[in-house]
Write a structure and sequence with these properties.
The longest helix is centred in the N-terminal third of the chain and has 11 residues, at about 15-25. This protein is of the alpha+beta class and about 150 residues long. A hairpin with a 5-residue loop joins β2 and β3. It contains six helices and eight strands, in the order βαββαββααβαββα. The strands form three sheets. Strands 1-8-7 form a three-stranded antiparallel β-sheet. α5 (about 105-115) crosses α6. It has one domain (about 1-145): CBS-domain. It has helices spanning about 15-25, 45, 75-85, 90, 105-115, 135-145; strands at about 1-5, 30, 40-45, 60-65, 65-70, 95, 120-125, 130-135.
């Protein structure tokens, strides 16, 4: 686990976030409020729209009797739009990120990283960020344990 990781606050601008990530050569960072609570995470997937999402098309819909009936999930479109026009970290971050506790078993951390396809997990004790465990941290620990 990396203690005292680089963090950003919900009020930071996207420009400031990008500068921080570039300066520290990070693919993402936990979002921490003034009280030290981990309230989100920003990763590369939050920063870059994948090809099929670039045009931000509305979900399929039917216009019927002056109303619109959406045939697909509107929430996904809203999330993509919010991230595409984000001005602050809060607008862009993934809320309620997958986290682990300081005493989480190594194999459980590895399972979560693989299952959720994350490169890093915030380590949280009583809601407060105490570190970050990365995919590389887990791989190194698994090799050392063998």
């Amino acid at each position: 686990m990396q203690r005292d990781p680089v963090t950003v606050s919900p009020e930071d601008t996207v420009e400031s976030l990008l500068r921080t990530l570039r300066e520290h050569e990070l693919p993402g960072a936990p979002v921490v409020n003034g009280g030290g609570r981990c309230v989100g995470i920003v990763t590369e997937s939050d920063l870059v729209l994948r090809d099929e999402e670039e045009d931000l098309r509305l979900p399929l819909h039917i216009d019927l009797f002056g109303g619109t009936i959406f045939l697909g999930p509107v929430r996904r479109f809203e999330d993509r739009l919010r991230k595409a026009i984000a001005a602050t970290v809060e607008d862009m971050m993934t809320r309620e990120p997958v986290t682990v506790a300081p005493d989480t078993d190594l194999h459980e951390a590895a399972r979560l990283i693989a299952e959720h396809r994350h490169n890093r997990l915030p380590v949280v004790a009583h809601g407060r960020l105490v570190g970050v465990v990365t995919r590389l941290d887990v791989l190194e620990a698994l090799v050392a344990a063998s």
